[in-house]
Amino acid sequence: MNASYAIDYEMIFQHAPVGMCISVNRVIRSCNHALAAMFGYQRIQLDGQSFSVLYPTMDEFLRTGDRIIPIMNAKGRYSDERIMRRENGELFWCHVTGRALDPAEPLGAGVWTFEDVSEKRPVTAELTPREREIAALLVEGKTSKLIARETDLSPRTVEMHRAKLMKKFSASTSSELVHKLISMSR
Questions:
Q1: Which one of 115, 122, 168, 173 is at 20 to 30 Å from 15 when CA atoms are compared?
Q2: Which domain, by its residues, includes 148?
Q3: Is residue 181 one of the residues assigned to a domain?
Q4: pLDDT digits over 131-160, tens only?
Q5: Statement to judge: residues 119 and 130 lie in one domain
Q6: 7 to 12, 29, 35, 139: CA distances (angstroms)
């Protein structure tokens, strides 16, 4: 690269092909056009807002925050696919990845990316917030015991939620359920 070429990081941030934001303590400090458009907002509407406006419920926002901290502490970054909510109330699957700028403060200042994966995985069944959480963890390949530990539920309760998901998605086995969650529209 030519040393005299000035890199315009703001332009790169604003025109990135994925949603991006800078946050501090789960509050959006600055977001790009792709993130605002993905969620159906204007950029100015999201700057200064809590990430909670992007979640289906406040409970899901809080539980996700609790789940992020130990993973960020262990790995320095966090990534998952979860159901998020657009400004108009529509729910959609979103791949989210983030990294704290200071590893000692996992929810402090950070850089986050968001990718709409709803074309590959549409939300087709009416799910409760807990079912959405369990579904996202099942897609990650987690067992009922691991999900129970991460969500502070008993393994039996996780199995009950899994059974409800199987019924809603007309799946006869757990692997069929995960397959349907992953590749519904393929």
A1: 122
A2: 124-186
A3: yes
A4: 888 888 888 888 889 888 888 889 899 888
A5: no
A6: 8, 22, 22, 38
